[in-house]
Design goal:
20% helix; globular
Amino acid sequence: MKLHTFSKALNSFAGPMLAGALALNSLAAAPALAAQTGLAYDEVTKIVIGGPQPQPGTFAADFQAAVDAQKSLATPGSHRGLFGNIMNSMDMAKNAMSMLKTGTATTHYYLGGWERSDDAGAQTATISKFDRHQMIYLNLAKKTYRVVDTSVAPAMETPPPMERARGGGQPSQPGSGKLDISVSSNVLGPLVVENTPTTGYSTTFNLTMSQSTGSCSDGSFKTAMIEYVSRYLQPRVGSPRVGSPRAAMPRQRLSRPELAALRPGCTPTMSMHAMGGAQPPAGRLALWTLVTVSGSAPSAQGPMSGGFSTLIERGNIRALGPADKSLFEIPAGFTPEQ
């Protein structure tokens, strides 16, 4: 089944379920540990649809494939004329599909609360210095830069509270049913990933609605996460200051996060189950994370089901220190962007 068709069918049931799942996970998370002084690593993020489940151990090949795909997408077509433009468009479409399959490759640097992210394919970099209210954008190919003052916040409309926004302005319709929520976790054991010792963990989150009436609807939603966590501490960046765009965004809180999974007016009887024990330690850097989303929901064409996975791989981890501070400065010879 095509991904967009499946997503549309799950929009009224499984989509909000994900928000509820993430909210519950965030409430249960332990405080993060303080990060070490500096760290850098390469990263690949991609969507996986169909085929065998990915396994750790392919980072080098996956990173290079993603870089090549990004370079192809960033390179303008060489065909000329009317038909040449059509061929260039076709090439871009092929490259975009290839990039969807291979993912995106980035390199991340963290030092003293600063962050830098490089796009190897597009040859660009973004440097964040929250303590100085600065965002620096580098074009590594053209050797130009642009500095943005984050202390000047753009005009922003305050979004409605999440609980009120779910109604969409429509009157709530009554409904009932049975909502079963279950969470399980397991330790997969030690594994060396990219020459780094890690410990594997598996976590699943299941939501199932049955015996629905009114605004409630039957369906199921599942997220499954497998991750291999290293001994490195997850890098932290400085907190956004008052007046910055990030600080200006209001935080929304749900008094009952699990209700984000339901339509307005739907008040089912809920039961929760927890199985397993050990969970990944908070604040540690995961070198390999696979999150799979799947579910089923009714539609006009009958029951529909499907799913997809998001894979994050990290490698080439190295420590940063005071000598690497120049990575977060505008390089010599770069000129202001025109």
